[in-house]
Structure to design on (199 residues):
């Protein structure tokens, strides 16, 4: 076993993060992303609201740019999943290395009252059949009436609503404040949609 792989296994997550941040400076790469209105909306409005109002949130995807979200939740209320082992260091304390299609193998059905699926459609899950498969799994992962937040980009894919991928599993969320499609001024192409689990 190499020294690098031994360090990855033995060092606590905060020390790993500190070393990676100091040695590779990934924040510099994402500096532009972090200033975009859609990202500011996610980090300043969506995630704090979820931290105050939800007891069990699953964030799909992990990366240096989401590492701070866990601080908004009480211990054990926030979980991440990503299929790439290399990004696990940026995930929550309760992080799953695996595909979102396998979430119901890792957790009991109905475990979450909210799932945030941001930057997944159009970034690897691109075909309508694959999107429907994800939606079906998330329906089972959510509690009845649970909230699904989907972030996607208009320049990377067709409107998921037009693709009819949500029926019969989800309906538009009618509970404020996360109840209307959120768009941003150009050149921003990111959109947030809010759904609730259909029972």
């Amino acid at each position: 076993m190499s020294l690098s792989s031994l360090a990855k296994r033995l060092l606590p997550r905060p020390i790993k993060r500190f070393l990676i941040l100091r040695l590779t400076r990934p924040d510099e790469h994402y500096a532009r992303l972090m200033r975009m209105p859609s990202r500011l909306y996610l980090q300043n409005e969506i995630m704090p609201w979820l931290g105050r109002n939800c007891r069990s949130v699953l964030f799909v995807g992990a990366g240096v740019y989401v590492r701070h979200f866990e601080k908004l939740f009480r211990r054990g209320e926030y979980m991440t999943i990503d299929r790439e082992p290399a990004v696990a260091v940026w995930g929550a304390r309760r992080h799953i290395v695996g595909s979102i299609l396998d979430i119901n193998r890792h957790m009991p059905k109905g475990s979450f009252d909210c799932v945030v699926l941001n930057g997944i459609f159009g970034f690897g899950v691109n075909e309508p059949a694959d999107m429907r498969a994800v939606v079906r799994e998330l329906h089972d992962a959510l509690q009845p009436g649970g909230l699904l937040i989907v972030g996607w980009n208009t320049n990377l894919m067709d409107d998921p609503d037009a693709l009819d991928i949500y029926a019969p599993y989800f309906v538009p969320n009618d509970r404020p404040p996360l109840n209307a499609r959120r768009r941003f001024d150009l050149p921003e192409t990111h959109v947030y949609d809010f759904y609730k689990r259909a029972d």
About this structure: The first strand starts at residue 57 and ends at 60. Residues 11 and 123 are 31 Å apart (CA to CA).
